[in-house]
Amino acid sequence: KKYLESFAGMSALLFDVQLRPVTFFKGYSDLMSKMFSMSGDPISVVKGLILLTDHSQVIPLQSGLRASAEFQGGLAIDISGGMEFSLWYRESKTSVNNRSFKVLVESMEPDSLM
């Protein structure tokens, strides 16, 4: 009888870029170890801040003054995954949680004539 090695993991794409895969467990002994020490908390796959835009521009106004404008935009990302096991029913449930927050900061102020 041939036994196949148990394996569970997750791989993610972020802005068409393949991120490193995360392995939940590999092999039966690792599965049992994780199952008995499991806290129920999801494993973080991607967590970070991304600067989307950083732009500054001087705009000439009709009055002859100039205005200085600055724009910055960012994205906070948290992608995590978790697994629940039932050895009695021989099943597992996986969950993937995506959380993100986008912010755009704009400022415009008049410049001097020079």
TrEMBL record:
Positions of the MTP large subunit lipid-binding domain: 4-112
Keywords: Disulfide bond, Endoplasmic reticulum, Signal, Transport
Gene Ontology process terms (BP): cholesterol homeostasis; lipoprotein metabolic process
Compartment annotation: Endoplasmic reticulum
One GO location term (cellular component): Golgi apparatus
Presence of keyword Transport: yes
An annotated Gene Ontology molecular function: phospholipid transporter activity
Name of the molecule in the record: Microsomal triglyceride transfer protein
